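Tutorial, part two.
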Amino acid sequence: MALFDGCRLKLTRAREHLDDLNRRIQLFYSEEPDPQTVFWDQSREPDEYVVRARIRKSPDAILGLITGEASHHLRSALDHAIGELIEVTTGAPPPSSHNFGFPIFAERGEDTDGKLKRMTRGVSPLTFAFIERIQPYQYKEPKRHILWVLHRMDIENKHRSLHVLLGAAGIRRITHTGSGGASAFSVPERWVNNPVSFPLEDGTEVCSFSSRDPSHPGVNVELDLFIGLAAPSEAFGVPIQAILDAATKNVEELLTALMATVA
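Running the prediction step on this input gives:
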């Protein structure tokens, strides 16, 4: 096999899992009656309105299994790439005693540099410089970096528990369409600061507002219903399809960039 052929096979397999996940989630939301939807709930207070979740069914556990398989193929493709790069540079595959791998660190501690060197011992200086440069700790929000999220997802799935996927709701847009003007409408600050409700249970409040508009209530609420990860914390409540799509693209870009470091 040519350089990174095996890594790209893993990438292809991850895409197949993502396609399967997308199909299953689409089927889930197309069921009737709606497995997860919302309803208007008039508050006890005058002019107060609440939107709540109606949960009739939770996502199937198989979605967590598919998610774990996809994330592991992506994460291990990077580890395999390091082994291949060591062999290209040294002329021999790394010995079984060499615990090599693609390092991913969100924090730079006392021994971070040493760990980077130990995990990649044998790669070219150009390859090492690239790997060091793209570490999550080099970025403003390292624990939100897609590489770190992927790394944590793989650890969660391998060593802790099956991924749990649950329903979520995010406020896309709230518009006041009534005749009372802006002064007749207000949204609590908590929905501005945190527009996502996760995880959803039956009756969970997903949005609320005040409206004194004579058109009762003269407000249009647009919500996105999606499925998110319960753990790890770095991926909590984020749409699972968005995470895996971003991770797949990132791994593909990294493999291309790593290939370019080979003289």
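The beta strands are 36-42, 48-55, 165-176, 185-186, 196-197, 205-211, 219-229. In part three we will examine how such features are distributed along the chain.
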